[in-house]
């Protein structure tokens, strides 16, 4: 028996954008995941599921931190809604996508490179600095850092960015949140401040959060993830289906929390799964138009 991605596509257009792939050594397919590793998972439940407790951020959120460097990026730095932002893509595009970073902030090269991929599919990609120049620099400072950078605070910072994009002619805005950033995005999705959403290896997101979303929502989870383990991701999926919210849910085998923007370049399997997740993300955005 395998778990494959679950899609609830009621009323969506099947417009899909593609990405090119870099050839890498053959590794196992990343679209199938044996259930033997997990507790029993019930799909299509109608009963009320017990929310998981909010998991505190820890070492898992801080593994393989990015090496901040310049170069290899096609975007530019602008100030949008009073926040410094990395932007990429056609500024005349009518659809924008916010990419909300993990704890390491908007300067992470792989996050910016993903923004370039999103932009190449026709979107105006925006990566705001929600930390105001103060990303996490040491796991030893994580507790104090989180007190000053709660995701709920960033939701308020995001609203002027969204308004500024509307004022420049953007007619539809989506958002993708990574780890810490997923909590920001789910809050925006609950208030319908955005028109579509994606949560990648989310942190701090609860079942009640998912029950409250009002826009199409994609969830990309890792097999090895204490913050959002596969059984919780499946509960998220069941909640979206029960609400009849258009959704895309997929669990990627053999990878850990944070892999989509903190994958190890020397790990061919991890790179392959990251590239697959990037393409899935862009295709999900296309289906939300």
Q: Given the structure, what is the number of helices?
A: 8
Silhouette: globular
The spatial strand order of the largest sheet comes to 2-11-10-9-8-6-7-5-4
Question: From the alpha-carbon coordinates, what is the Rg to the nearest angstrom?
Answer: 18 Å
Query: Which stretches are low in confidence, meaning pLDDT under 50 for 5 or more residues running?
Result: 1-5, 9-29, 31-57
Summing up helix and strand content along with how strands pair, one would put the structural category as alpha/beta
CA(first)-CA(last) distance: 33 Å
Mean of all residue-level pLDDT scores:
84
Query: Main β-sheet, in a few words?
Result: 9 strands, mixed
Instruction: Please report which band the strand proportion falls in: under 5%, 5-15%, 15-25%, 25-35%, 35-45% or over 45%.
Output: 15-25%
Number of strands: 11
Helix content: 25-40%
The oligomerization state is single chain
* Secondary-structure element series: EEEEEEHEHHEHEHEHEHH
Give a structural overview.
This protein is α/β, with parallel strands linked by helices and about 290 residues long. It has helices spanning about 110-120, 140-150, 150-165, 180-190, 205-210, 230-245, 260, 270-285, and strands at about 1-5, 5-10, 35, 75-80, 85-90, 95-100, 125-130, 170-180, 195-200, 215-225, 245-255. The strands form two sheets. A nine-stranded mixed sheet has the order 2-11-10-9-8-6-7-5-4, sandwiched between helices. The chain has a two-stranded antiparallel sheet with strand order 1-3. β8, α4 and β9 (about 195-200) form a beta-alpha-beta unit. α3 packs across α4 (about 180-190).
